[in-house]
Design goal:
Layout (H helix, E strand, L loop, with lengths): L1 E2 L12 E2 L1 H12 L4 H5 L15 E2 L1 H14 L4 H5 L9 H7 L4 H10 L9 E7 L2 E7 L8 H19 L6 E5 L9 H7 L10 E6 L12 H21 L2 H9 L9 H7 L4 H10 L4 H19 L4 H7 L5 H12 L3 H9 L3
Antiparallel strand pairs: 1-4, 2-3, 4-5, 5-7, 6-7
Helix pairs in contact: 1-3, 5-6, 5-9, 10-13, 13-16, 14-15
């Protein structure tokens, strides 16, 4: 048995382009959900969805996924069909211009950070079959089914776009229990899955791996891969110290922690922490504001937490300081924001 992945088992917590979130919001809107409801608690504004330069954190996209999945719990497969090769930007063009399907799969695994997937992929070849397994064990339990369905349907859609003949599956299995209806699986994947299986696995004939792709172009794929490498390097650089600080600030009670306390947790001096954050294009104050803004939106959206209590939870000594900060973030007072959120669409 041979593996096509250099290091397929990687965590999903990395920055992402906004295009994947935009797909989810457009999908939800077509099914009667408002942008406001879909973006609730994510810290994202509707205007950002149209800006290709915007990057989102995994937690932000997960919040949109949760909003969508709660409103449309059986829509993972349908949402996945909305993802096409071009949705993935420069990575998608690397797929399309690869010499063969094998090369396209290798590119996808090599630059997994540029995908919108949350399920961790592993691709192996044995006995003439390609086995694609999606590991959902690190996913939030309430979203695992939706994300696996979305990710696998997106992969299947893109693979079918690479070859004019499509790539029929020879097997499909999911770890979750069989839902009430299974027609969408058969329409999308061409066969009825097995449910309650040990793993989420799709298989297809390995002969498709060496099929030449119709848009193959050596110069284009080389150019695309160079851009992919550069983009991955930039994104990973931004997740370093800033990501660690952000994680610590989101813990209960940590928003009142001063910068020296966070620096000690990271085994750094305050001066070194400040310098590293500057090198990553941010600051402790900016990260603190970012986390406070996102949590404030979420708490106020619940409609049951008084402004004074929100201020305390966010580490403010006085409610007036929180109100001033919130007006700077959103242009309205916390009370007005909460009231507006309470008005039904």
């Amino acid at each position: 048995m041979t593996s096509l992945a250099e290091s397929a088992v990687r965590h999903w917590d990395f920055p992402r382009g906004v295009a994947g979130t935009s797909v989810l919001v457009r999908f939800g809107a077509r099914h009667g959900l408002s942008e406001r409801a879909l973006l609730a608690g994510s810290g994202l504004a509707a205007a950002q969805l149209a800006d290709p330069s915007v990057e989102v954190e995994a937690r932000q996209e997960l919040r949109v996924v949760r909003n969508l999945a709660q409103a449309l719990p059986d829509s993972g497969v349908a949402a996945g069909r909305e993802y096409h090769a071009t949705t993935f930007g420069i990575l998608g063009f690397a797929f399309l211009s690869s010499p063969t399907m094998r090369d396209a799969v290798a590119v996808a695994l090599r630059y997994y950070d540029l995908s919108f997937a949350f399920s961790i992929p592993e691709v192996t070849v044995a006995d003439g079959q390609v086995r694609l397994a999606l590991d959902d064990r690190l996913l939030p339990a309430d979203l695992a089914r939706f994300l696996v369905e979305r990710d696998l349907a997106a992969i299947h859609t893109v693979v079918d776009e690479l070859l004019p003949t499509g790539v029929p599956l020879t097997g499909l299995a999911f770890r979750f229990a069989e839902p009430a209806t299974t027609g969408q699986y058969e329409r999308t994947f061409g066969l009825r899955p097995t449910f309650g299986a040990p793993a989420n696995v799709a298989t297809f004939d390995a002969s498709y791996l060496d099929e030449p792709l119709p848009l193959a172009d050596a110069h284009t794929v080389a150019m695309c891969e160079a851009q992919c490498r550069d983009l991955v390097a930039r994104r990973r650089a931004r997740t370093g110290t800033a990501h660690q600080v952000r994680e610590r600030l989101t813990r209960l009670g940590a928003l009142g922690s001063p910068m020296p306390a966070i620096a000690r947790e990271l085994n750094l001096s305050t001066r070194t922490l400040r310098r590293r954050l500057e090198e990553e294009g941010t600051s402790f104050r900016a990260l603190l504001d970012e986390v406070r803004e996102a949590l404030a939106e979420e708490l106020l959206s619940m409609g049951a937490v008084p402004v004074e209590d929100v201020a305390v939870r966010l580490g403010y000594a006085e409610a007036s300081s929180f109100i001033h900060a919130f007006k700077r973030w959103k242009g309205v007072t916390p009370t007005a924001y909460a009231r507006r959120r309470a008005v039904p669409e």
